[in-house]
Design brief:
Shape: elongated
Strand content: under 5%
Structural class: mainly alpha
Radius of gyration: 27 Å
Largest sheet: none
Distance between the termini: 26 Å
Number of domains: 2
């Protein structure tokens, strides 16, 4: 297999994974909007029933109009917030673990496991050790 073809396959794999992350993040944002909208409506309806049972007709009408406006404003604000949370391909690709490999290894050791460093590039192209960072070779276990 030619090297350019393998590089293209790697690129497509990375892009596919980024698309999956983006889809999941956008689905979570949509869930937040849906559940917040339902919560706002349930709260407004509950307060309306409480006002209907305990207030006079004119006061109830004022409270019901206020609750309706508050629910509309709340849903609009939540919609704007969720639209701002939607993930573009660039934002999905920017999500990363910023910890150093040494910090990750310490967390793994703290959990009672032994970190294992594997250089997949070297496994694909035998004889090339340049892809594995020199600073980590002392800690590597193969």
């Amino acid at each position: 297999m030619s090297e350019t073809r393998r590089d293209e396959q790697k690129l497509w794999l990375i892009l596919f994974q980024i698309k999956g992350v983006r889809s999941r993040l956008n689905f979570l944002a949509m869930q937040r909007w849906l559940f917040a909208g339902i919560a706002i409506l349930i709260g407004a309806v509950a307060l309306t029933f409480f006002a209907a049972a305990s207030l006079g007709p004119l006061t109830f009408l004022g409270v019901a109009i206020f609750l309706l406006l508050a629910a509309i404003v709340g849903i609009i604000r939540e919609t704007m917030l969720v639209r701002a949370m939607r993930t573009s391909p660039a934002r999905a690709a920017a999500i990363a673990d910023t910890r150093s490999p040494r910090e990750v290894a310490e967390v793994i050791r703290g959990l009672g496991y032994e970190p294992v460093w594997k250089d997949w590039e070297a496994a694909l192209t035998p004889g090339e050790d340049e892809a594995f960072p020199e600073s980590l070779r002392a800690e590597a276990c193969f």
